[in-house]
Amino acid sequence: MNSILSYLTGVFGVYKRWCTWQRIFYLTITGSLSGLMIVQTEIADALIRGEVGLTWQPWVATYSSVIGFTIVSPFLIYCCELWPFGKAHVIKTTIKLALLYVPITFCFITAMLILRNIAHLLIDGTLFDGWDLIDRYIYEFPKAIAIYLIFIFITYTKIYYDNSQKEQLNAANLQNELQTIRMQTLRSQLQPHFLFNTLNLISSTVYQDADKADSIITRLGDLLRYSLATEQKPFVTFKEELQAMQSYLEISQLRFGERMELEISVEPSTELLMIPAMLLQPLLENAVKYGIEPSNETGKITLESDLIEGLLQIKITNPWHQRRQQQESFGIGLQNTKDRLKLLYQEQATVTLDNNNTDQVTLTIILPAQHMEQTNE
To answer: What are the chain's domains?
Structure first.
């Protein structure tokens, strides 16, 4: 009983999905055109047989067939949706469809005959014909097999097409979700790394120089506020990012004092271009880590930006004291930056590390020059 109710519920669901104006419109057009082509053949056959007086009969015969099959078609559609036709199920499904032909065709013929008789009674007051009912079913059964097979073929083609579209859409959605998760993972790797280093700096100075530690904490608060503000804001203007990074650079200068010199040269046309939030922080951190920290001598970090042929170019130059380590690896921050830019820009962004001479290295980032409306898209 439950299986019967489940089947009827499924059939009702098919009918419900069909009952939209768009489906009814397409069904009406398709049925009307198919019936029109068939009725021309019926009229031609009638004329060949010498039945010149026939006028409305071929129309009734044709469209009663079209409407009758339309009535039972949702049952057939539901069964096709229920029974997959893949390699693992082809034999089983073929047997089921062959057995289904009997009840589907019986219902189709019944609906067709009812419609024909109603039409004949309304038009000329007589029944459709004087054939024995069993003979009529025996006559119509083999005629229906062609339309049955064609309809099954079209239905399965539509099912596989819809499934293919859904799979492509699901794959695209999954790819977007994975990309978002990966981006979040990359950012979560950058921020704790920076936070850990800064907290170590505060810990090492809080007892030696309380004012310096207080200043570091204030600037750290500014950076954290900026970081939190960009959680839901993946892109910021280059000017916003640079202003936030001033806090980081000031923290570093408080740490190293006169050992660290800084020069910033920003092309005004680049200030309103959009870049990924927190892009500069790991790059500047590496410049300090590899350029200033290893040596007791004075070192200079240079930050430059320029707009060249529709591309934003950012350069960070710093002293180079650990040649082997920098050659072998970009480090966590730089590698994450490369991965992050590849996810955002594919092959349109590049990150390169070049040694200008024996004691300097320049990190160059090239991004597409985008304004706010472009990043929103």
So the answer is: 2-143 (no CATH), 187-376 (3.30.565.10)
